[in-house]
Amino acid sequence: MPLSISLRKGLTTPDSTIIATKYNVTVKTDEQVELSFTCTWDEKNSSNFPVNVEKRYVVLRGLSGIYIYGIYERLKGWPDLDFVQTRIVFKPDGDKFKYMALTDERQRVMPSAEDRSNGTPLDYKEAVKLSTNTSNPDLIGEVDDKYQYSAQYKDSRVHGWISDDPAVGLWMITPSNEFKNGGPTRQRMHSHTGPTMLNVVSCGHYAGADLEIQFRNGEPWKKVFGPVLVYLNSGDKASAWLDAKNQMLTEVGKWPYDFPASVDHLKSSHRGAVSGQLQVIDRFAQNGSVAASNAQVGLAAPGKAGSWQRESKGYQFWVVADGTGNFVIKNVRPGTYNLYAFIPGFIGDYVYNTSVIVESGGEISLGVLTYKPPRDGPTLWEIGVPDRTAAEYFIPDPDKDLRNYLVDKLSDQKYRQYGLWRRYTELYPDEDLSFTINQNDYSSDWFFAHVTRKAGGNQYLSATWKINFSLDDVKATATYKLRLALASAHAADLEVRVNGQIVDPPLFKTGQIGKENAIARHGVQGLYWLFHIDVPGGKLVTGNNTVYLTQAIATGPFHGVMYDYIRLEGPAT
């Protein structure tokens, strides 16, 4: 049951399993056994990393499973360190465990590791096309790629593998995501071909180096990852999956656990709670003031609005507000936080700038809070839905020879198919995408990813998209505002021009942004980017206008952005 960690002291990034140098039986009773394994930094050992790691394993009477948690610590004054990722990895017997279950809909017989090795590699090593020499004839010609089985934290509290003979289920259950990095929009790999079962508690997938933890100038740190439960059950596929889901609900209900022996795992009585109500004021929205219905509200390390999505060192506690914007965040570890939120249907991020200091056993009521989303003037036109994803846009069918058979059955997850970036050049062979307001429909006419155009061989070209629109009575001396929200970016430089495709310099450019790789890894969401662009009225005309969006970096197929939402506002009133 290895706890894998990637650390960096210099330019290399070794991937290693933490090997303990000492162990201790911390609890031994008729009801519980808890073991501790420690690896302590030795400054005389040049191959060692400046972090202490303690792994703990707990077995309880009457439960067919084992709890795992880790305690990572750095003392003040220790050398610099980059913490790339940490994860729990299981590799069950591939001759027995062939059926994988992630959700009610995402379940299937998986190819074997040998099937992958016999397959044809595609654009990157994680993706292969299975050959005719495959152990299961039903899988011949299918694409297998571990990133097709990624999921957000909220959708991955339980996943695992099932063996037919013997009829055994092996499950990873995560009762809380408080120790995971990047907040509620993050997604990770989970179970995938191998067979492999993961619990990735800290990494940069779908975000990049922004989520790596950097320690500089002797910064001290301690964090508890887990506990999580590795659970075993028996029965046929349906009953094993149902039992695993029920066990997950039981574990969530018991969080925070009261049995771990480490003083660093805080029980419920040593935690606090924060409550309040969030409303939104947008004078151009219906009724002006509305409840922040279904807002994601969370506590994370102090920072600027939206900083939580790049935060990894501390803990995060998130809930979904009810229909009236009320929220209660329970079982918060004592500490100093900011309260953050984002609301479906509105751009931007809310932050309560006063520090929220949570104490053991304390309850804090923040009362009624108000978020005023970015807004200068009335909406002249808009594209998409402000929900931080590109899921509402046109997702093409995959190449018929590059399909994943499970994703074929999931119409709402078509974006998980392999090679969709290739389809842009096929669908727009002569000219780039052109979208006309009040004529085109973003669900069918706006490609979900602004990618490069393949020009032949290994040559790629920048793509320039056009937004065509008509305006009445343009005020030449006024300033209009273009709101540009991105759901993801990868090694991209987005340039904005108005009424002139060949205009240098552009009205606006992002500069190179993003290392999220969501295009290659079958996502519609990475980090959220929001840009506010002043458009002088003198650049617009009464009548027909065009905004040109150019993604300027084109050295490969995966450069690009995904749009969340675009809006042009009239002058401030």
Key features of this structure:
GH-type_carb-bd; 40 strands; carbohydrate binding; 573 residues; mainly beta; globular; Immunoglobulin-like; 3 domains
Descriptive overview:
The protein contains four helices and 40 strands. It folds into three domains: 3-254, Beta-galactosidase, Chain A, domain 5, CATH 2.70.98; 268-371, Carboxypeptidase-like, regulatory domain (Immunoglobulin-like, Sandwich); 379-569, Galactose-binding domain-like (Jelly Rolls, Sandwich). By secondary structure, it is mainly beta. The mean pLDDT is 94. Helix content is 6%, strand content 42%. Residues 293-365, 379-568 form the Rhamnogalacturonan lyase domain. One of its GO terms (cellular component) is extracellular region. Its EC number is 4.2.2.23. It is found in: Secreted.
Question: Segments where pLDDT lies below 50 for 5+ residues?
Answer: none
State mean pLDDT (0 to 100 scale): 94
Beta-strand content: 35-45%
* Count of alpha/pi helices: 4
- Terminal-residue CA separation: 62 Å
Structural class: mainly beta
Q: Name the helicity range.
A: under 10%
State the major sheet.
9 strands, antiparallel
Based on DSSP secondary structure assignment, what is the total number of beta strands? Answer: 40
CATH fold naming of the largest domain: Beta-galactosidase, Chain A, domain 5
Rg on CA atoms, Å: 25 Å
Number of domains: 3
Indicate the CATH architecture of the largest domain: Distorted Sandwich
Query: Shape from CA axes?
Result: globular
Oligomer: single chain
Task: Please state how the strands of the largest beta sheet are arranged side by side.
Answer: 3-4-5-6-19-15-14-8-9
